[in-house]
Design brief:
The chain is mainly α. The chain contains 19 helices and no strands. Helix 15 packs antiparallel against helix 16. The longest helix is centred in the middle third of the chain and has 43 residues, at 138-180. One of its GO terms (cellular component) is membrane. Its main location: membrane.
């Protein structure tokens, strides 16, 4: 049994997959982003401390990242469609069972664990299958899909507030769970590129006659899905390790600005209503940055790893300048710069990962990258908080984030240099093989 497509279609039905991934991004990451609106309601209902209540979101984020390798492994073993549908059912179960609100531990297990696992099983394969469907337009497709997070987050804020005011926090959870069932519909639309029976596909590959002139590596490059097992050996590849270290340092920084932006505005004496508008500005410019960067990367003017290095450098610069703001206007301008360049980074970093490891190992690489990157997300906010406590100024957190991003850009430069040396080495070996002639007399004539 053969795959439906020997090469990524780079369009056609692929755009249906992109729209489906756009919806999945909104119904998973955007829900996680705006879940803070339930914080006070849940805290007051159970009469718990803020630190105790915050563990709901912490468990969700942790399971989201820890479940990514499992989701990638299931994508390799079965299909992206099956895993996304499973994720939608898990996400719905987490919200629907959270509706019961039996205890705080119950909330950890439902809206924490089940919701996080549902997000992992939906988000990871949705990102992965877009890269399988596109090659030349991969950056643009990934950018459009990731923009769903921004678009839905902008809408979910007022919607969730209205649901809580009308139906209470429990009723709102149940309705949101029902909305998340649409993830299953999006999963159905994610038609597999290859045969759903991977064992039959691999059997047909092994029966290919050896003299047909096509090597196994050529088939892996042409076939969108060839890896039949999860490849843990990626951790031994230097280029993947360099990119994973970049991911850790970047994650340490990305979670810091949203955490201290509101607090910094309060310390400057900015009114609460104006402070809320900063978050709206952040969402809008983030959305614009993703789409514009995806469009530019699709032109193939700049190498994707070079583009990512530039965006990381610009983010670090904006974070270093942001603490210089002394009023609302200057703070809004620097926040806009940060949000725009953050969007450009999100739009292209998955494409760079695909370029680094190649499509045959992409599913495994995405799961491992998410798992390794999570350590930066866990370490960043506490470290920034410690620095702020020692310095006694919220600006110190932004300086820490900017400096960490500068360090992460260094690993991208090292990765690019490593890849260039590797390419030159392979080209040299190819030339040497071509220069070796089969007959000694011809080789002697070549020397003369």
């Amino acid at each position: 049994m053969q795959a439906k497509h020997s090469n990524p279609p780079d369009g056609g039905y692929g755009w249906v997959v992109v729209v489906s991934a756009f919806m999945v991004m909104g119904l998973t990451a955007a829900v996680l982003k705006t879940f803070g609106l339930f914080f006070v309601e849940i805290q007051q209902h159970f009469d718990e401390l803020a630190s105790t209540t915050s563990w709901i979101t912490s468990v969700t984020i942790a399971i989201f990242h820890l479940g990514a390798p499992a989701a990638s492994s299931l994508c390799v073993r079965y299909t992206h469609r099956a895993v996304v549908i499973t994720g939608g059912l898990l996400a719905f179960s987490g919200m629907a069972l959270g509706f019961l609100g039996l205890s705080m531990v119950w909330m950890y297990a439902t809206t924490g664990f089940l919701q996080g696992l549902g997000i992992a099983f939906s988000w990871t394969p949705a990102v992965s299958i877009v890269s399988h469907y596109f090659s030349k337009k991969r950056a643009l497709a990934n950018a459009i899909a990731s923009a769903g997070e921004c678009a839905f987050a902008f809408t979910f804020g007022p919607l969730f507030q209205w649901l809580i005011s009308q139906y209470g926090w429990k009723g709102a959870l149940l309705i949101i769970g029902g909305i998340q069932l649409n993830i299953c519909v999006c999963g159905v639309l994610m038609r597999p590129l290859a045969s759903s029976c991977l064992l039959e596909a691999s059997h047909s590959e092994t029966e290919t006659p050896p003299g047909n002139g096509a090597t196994r590596m050529d088939k892996e490059e042409k076939s969108p899905i060839t890896q039949k097992t999860f490849n843990w050996m990626l951790v031994r590849r230097p280029e993947f390790i360099l990119y994973a270290i970049f991911g850790i340092l970047a994650a340490m920084s990305f979670f810091v600005p949203p955490l201290f932006l509101v607090l910094l505005s309060y310390s400057l004496g900015i009114d609460e209503s104006w402070t809320a508008s900063l978050l709206s500005i952040l969402a809008m410019v983030d959305f614009a940055g993703r789409l514009l960067c995806g469009w530019y990367a699709n032109l193939h003017i700049t190498k994707t790893v070079h583009l990512l290095t530039m965006t990381i450098t610009l983010i670090s610069t904006s974070l270093m300048l942001l603490p210089l703001a002394n009023n609302y206007l200057s703070l809004a301008i620097f926040t806009g710069f940060y949000g725009f360049f953050f969007g450009t980074t999100v739009a292209v970093h998955i494409t760079v990962l695909a370029d680094v490891v190649g499509m045959p190992d992409f599913d495994s690489a995405l799961g491992l990258f998410m798992l390794i990157r999570s350590t930066g997300g866990f370490m960043g906010p506490p470290l920034a908080g410690l620095i702020v406590d020692v310095a006694g100024d919220y600006r110190a957190g932004f300086y820490m984030a900017g400096a960490t991003l500068v360090l992460s850009a260094g690993f991208l430069v090292t990765l690019d240099q490593f890849q260039q040396r590797k390419e030159k080495g392979s080209q040299t070996n190819t030339k040497q093989e071509k220069s070796t002639l089969p007959y000694p007399s011809l080789h002697l004539m070549k020397l003369q």
